[in-house]
Write a structure and sequence with these properties.
alpha/beta, single chain, globular, binds 6-O-phosphono-beta-D-glucopyranose, six-stranded parallel beta sheet, 6 strands, 9 helices, binds magnesium ion
Length: about 220
């Protein structure tokens, strides 16, 4: 049997930081006089910080100097860091740790595959860092999701064939990246949004041991 590797996205899969990203973008959008709502925020999920700002400015029809662009990137991130400063393990999404524990007990290699440059400090805050053999994040990639790079690097670190990797994702761009890497994609969230995923669950409370075993046995 081939070894199976599990790769987890962070924001919206392990912790609900999507709400903090939303608040920080909303604050900046308000400041710039750009309409921005929760539907718009869907487009930001799984997307790099830089690309998010580009989309926001496109929405507002604004074109700005590189200096101003970088200043707003910093402003958004500082605002976001204020929100995540208070995070602790109570913010781990339901049953996520149960799944991590189960896989760890079975010696299944696990990696994080996130677009965020804040992934490591967040994992430290919620005390989940030790589950992962590799952390591949926004600092490790040159191409953002939906490019498969982040997951292919993770598979490489785990020493597992891409075709034997399973990816948990809450973002359309992330599911597309997993599919492009020819991995098994598991959408966490609304199935209408994550139509391209191989499997779909609202959250980890819907994932049982029999399903995990089936994935492990591929
Ligand atoms: C992804 C989020 O995980 O990380 C995106 O889904 C976010 O919404 C991206 O823009 C980058 O995050 P950060 O923490 O580097 O700004
Ligand atoms: Mg996500």
């Amino acid at each position: 049997m081939n070894k199976t590797g599990f790769i987890f996205d962070l924001d919206g899969v392990i912790v609900d930081t999507a709400k903090y990203h939303y608040l920080a973008w909303k604050n900046l959008a308000d400041e710039l006089g750009i309409e921005f709502n929760k539907d718009d925020n869907e487009k930001f999920k799984g997307v790099s910080r830089k690309r998010c700002l580009e989309i926001l400015l496109e929405m507002g029809g604004l074109s700005v100097s590189e200096k101003q662009f970088d200043a707003w990137l910093v402003e958004k991130n500082e605002d976001y860091l204020e929100y995540i400063k208070k995070m602790d393990e109570t913010e781990i999404l339901p049953d996520v740790e149960k799944v991590l524990q189960y896989l760890k007990k079975k010696n299944i290699p696990m990696a994080l595959g996130s677009a965020s440059k804040n992934a490591r400090p967040i994992l430290e805050k919620v005390q989940l860092l030790s589950y992962f053999e590799a952390i591949v994040d926004g600092n490790s990639v040159t191409k953002a999701k939906p490019d498969p790079e982040v997951f292919l690097i993770a598979a490489d670190h785990l020493n597992v064939e891409a075709a034997n990797c399973v990816v948990f994702e809450d973002a359309v761009a992330g599911v597309a990246a997993a599919n492009a890497a020819e991995m098994v994609s598991i959408g966490i969230g609304a199935s209408e949004v994550l139509q391209e995923a191989d499997y779909n669950f609202n959250d980890f409370t819907e994932i049982n041991v029999a399903f995990l075993d089936k994935l492990i046995e591929n």
